[in-house]
UniProtKB/TrEMBL annotation:
Pfam family, one: GCS2
Gene3D superfamilies the record matches: 3.30.590.20
The keyword Nuclease is annotated on this UniProt entry: no
Record's catalysed reaction(s): L-cysteine + L-glutamate + ATP = gamma-L-glutamyl-L-cysteine + ADP + phosphate + H(+)
Organism the protein comes from: Kribbella sindirgiensis
InterPro entries reported in the protein's UniProt record: GCL_type2/YbdK_subfam (IPR050141), GCS2 (IPR006336), Gln_synth/guanido_kin_cat_dom (IPR014746), UCP012666 (IPR016602)
UniProt keyword list: Ligase
Superkingdom assignment: Bacteria
Record PANTHER family: CONSERVED PROTEIN, GLUTAMATE--CYSTEINE LIGASE 2-RELATED
The protein's name: Glutamate--cysteine ligase
Signal peptide annotation: none
SUPFAM superfamilies named among the record's database cross-references: Glutamine synthetase/guanido kinase (SSF55931)
């Protein structure tokens, strides 16, 4: 959830000072870009995976503090809701056997954590939206105890001036009102970080935007919310609405939302940070004592803490990241498109597809973003969120086609080329991309399996709705622990 802050009251002077400091950070950042002060490109990635906690009935378990105390591992941290935690996977290499090693390390960490979590009467589920989460669970005291979350809640509602209205039309219709940002905690995602140079950043960000719809189509895993079957990736619409700080009138005026796909292709990472400062008021205006220009003048690296904190409260689906590691600044594209789950091997397969495809498109002499409009990429994104594995998307030279056909005929060969360019071991490449291929051939991803299994128990069986959701989630959890790719999960 970004930088830690203490709970404080903010004054008008605080907001003015924060805005001024963000602009000074931007000046320093522009100078760093001109002076080429950034770390060189390395095939490095980090992964964040958000997890849900459930009790013995597979209902939400509001025990993240107890679970984290039991796990005793700094890689695991709190998330927005008391039924959430997050694992931050240490950065690793993409090349060679790097992705294979990352998969093994994540499985080992999660298995060890699950054993310790069980001592609190809880278990972990890696899924985009917890199917057994109901409206009765969405109350303000479900926020994690970290002061940042209560402060963020207060600031969002101060900006809105009214309750959150969640309205989603899918297979069924949902209309819910909430007086806190807790519905946002229902959205659990996987975030892939890719370190790139300033020169390469716009190519990789544009490529990531262009393929976001295809990522969602093959990786959707959030068909249920508050007991209702909605969109195949309901998490997208939920997050867009739950974190919206705009009133109805501001929406009508065209004010940009804080959960944002964007509105144009970029030519520099500076474009994104400048948009942040130009379009969005501060939610958490906490200033530091750092003078970033003075830090640069003496040859050191500024933290740019205000720029980073502000960036962390603007929820782009592909977010720019500035960070400092061992006193050396670097830049990352943070891909926030995909839900968590269904398994670790599915997660790493999603990562391999993403890393390979963005590399191939970024290296292409005729960039894909020069052949399609930005609005077409955004339309693909929302079509895929609605329809998942059955979505149709637009692609230059192809027109409108089933996402699965596009992946099989055009995009998997590109992903192969990209992973080869990264230097990924051939056996690792073929195993992971083979999972994406089989999802497309079988038409089964996490969302379609959840829906099919639910209907087997509810529509065709004798279970009530709540029991059908619990029963489906139990089977989901069993398959998740087996680490069997979701396209192989039976519905019987």
């Amino acid at each position: 959830m970004g930088e830690e802050v203490d709970r404080v009251e903010f004054t008008r002077a605080d907001r003015t000072a924060f805005r001024e400091q963000v602009h000074r950070n931007l000046d320093a950042f522009a100078r760093m870009l001109r002076e080429n002060r950034f770390a060189p490109e390395r095939p490095m990635t980090g992964i964040e995976i958000e997890l849900n906690l459930v009790d013995e009935k597979c209902d939400p378990a509001f025990k993240n503090s107890e679970v984290l105390s039991a796990i005793e591992d700094d890689a695991f941290q709190t998330e927005l809701g008391q039924f959430n935690i997050e694992i931050n996977v240490p950065p690793g290499q993409i090349d060679g056997l790097g992705l294979d090693t990352m998969e093994s390390n994540i499985r080992d960490s999660l298995n060890a954590a699950e054993d310790k979590a069980s001592r609190t009467g809880s278990s972990m589920v890696v899924v985009g939206i917890l199917p057994t989460l109901l409206t009765e669970h969405i109350r303000r005291d479900a926020l994690s105890t970290n002061p940042r979350y209560a402060l963020l809640n207060d600031q969002i509602f101060a900006a809105r001036g009214e309750d959150v209205q969640i309205s989603i039309d899918g297979v069924e219709r949902l209309q819910v009102t909430a007086d806190s940002i807790v519905p946002e905690a229902a959205c659990t995602s996987t975030q892939f970080h890719l370190q790139v140079t300033p020169e390469a950043f716009p190519r990789y960000w544009n490529a990531a935007q262009a393929i976001s719809g295809v990522q969602l189509a093959v990786g959707a895993n959030s068909p249920f919310l508050f007991g209702k079957e909605l969109l195949r990736e309901t998490r997208i619409a939920l997050f867009e609405q739950a974190a919206d700080t705009r009133t109805h009138e501001l929406k009508t005026q065209g004010v940009r939302p804080r959960v944002w796909f964007g509105e144009r292709w970029i030519t520099s990472i500076f474009d994104l940070f400048e948009e942040n400062s130009r379009y969005y008021p501060a939610l958490l205006p906490v200033t530091s004592d750092e003078d970033p220009i003075a830090v640069l003048d003496r040859g050191d690296t500024p933290a740019l803490s205000e720029l980073r904190l502000h960036n962390g409260t603007i929820y782009r689906w592909n977010r720019p990241v500035y960070d400092v590691v061992r006193e050396k600044p670097h830049l990352r594209v943070e891909n926030r498109v995909l839900p968590a789950g269904p398994t670790v091997v599915d997660t790493i397969a999603n990562g391999a597809f993403y890393f390979g495809l963005v590399r191939a498109l970024a290296d292409d002499e005729r960039p894909i973003w020069s052949q399609m409009s930005f609005s077409a990429a955004e339309e693909n994104f929302h079509n895929a969120a609605r329809n998942g594995i059955e979505a149709e998307v637009f692609w230059p030279g192809v027109g409108t086609a089933r996402a699965t056909e596009l992946v099989l005929r055009r995009l998997l060969p590109l992903a192969v080329r990209g992973l080869d360019a990264w230097g990924v071991d051939v056996a690792v490449r073929d195993r992971l991309l083979g999972i994406i291929e089989q999802r497309c051939l079988t038409g089964r991803n996490g969302a379609s399996w959840q829906a099919d299994e639910f209907h087997r128990l509810y529509t065709k069986g004798s279970h009530g709705r709540k029991d059908a959701l619990r029963g489906m989630l139990r089977r989901y959890r069993d398959h998740m622990h087996d680490n069997t790719p979701v396209h192989e999960w039976p519905v019987d």
